[in-house]
Amino acid sequence: MTKRSEELPNEVAINAWARLHRTSSTALERVEDRLKKSGHPPLSWYDVLLELRRAKGQGLRLIEIEKRTLLAQYNASRLVDRIVAAGYAEKRKAQEDGRGVLVYLTSAGGNLLDEMWPTYQTAIQEDFADRLTERDIETLFKILAKLLPD
C-alpha cells in the first residue's frame, strides 16, 4: 500500500530515508577501501568493465555505459577515458554511423575485472550478507524492488 503524494512523509519515513542513504554510502566506502587496500582501482572501474563484459563483445556507446552504471555523462566520459588510457578498454568508431564511438573490453580489462571480483565479493559477504539472515536479505530485496523497479 502506498501513500498519496499529497501527504508529507512522517518522521519515521524521513529517518528511514536518511538511514538508507547512510547505509548505502557506508557500504560503498567499505568496498572502495577494500579495493584500494588490495591495490585495485575504484569500484566505478569495476562497474564499467562489468557492463562492457556483459555486452559480450558488442561494445557499448558512452550513453549506454552511463545508463547501465548510473554515472553522470561528464563522469562517465572521463572515467572511460582513464580506463582506455590504462589499456582495459578500447574505443572504436561505430560502423553503423561512422560518427559514434563504441567502447570494448580488452583482455587486460577482463583480467582486471576477474582480479577485482574476489575483493568485491568478500566485501559483499562480510559487510552485508554475514550481517543479515537469509530472510532479512529476501525482505530487503523485496522492499528495494518497490523503490527501484527493474
UniProtKB/TrEMBL annotation:
<protein>
    <submittedName>
        <fullName>MarR family winged helix-turn-helix transcriptional regulator</fullName>
    </submittedName>
</protein>
<dbReference type="Pfam" id="PF12802">
    <property type="entry name" value="MarR_2"/>
</dbReference>
<dbReference type="InterPro" id="IPR039422">
    <property type="entry name" value="MarR/SlyA-like"/>
</dbReference>
<dbReference type="InterPro" id="IPR036388">
    <property type="entry name" value="WH-like_DNA-bd_sf"/>
</dbReference>
<dbReference type="InterPro" id="IPR000835">
    <property type="entry name" value="HTH_MarR-typ"/>
</dbReference>
<feature type="domain" description="HTH marR-type">
    <location>
        <begin position="1"/>
        <end position="149"/>
    </location>
</feature>
<dbReference type="InterPro" id="IPR036390">
    <property type="entry name" value="WH_DNA-bd_sf"/>
</dbReference>
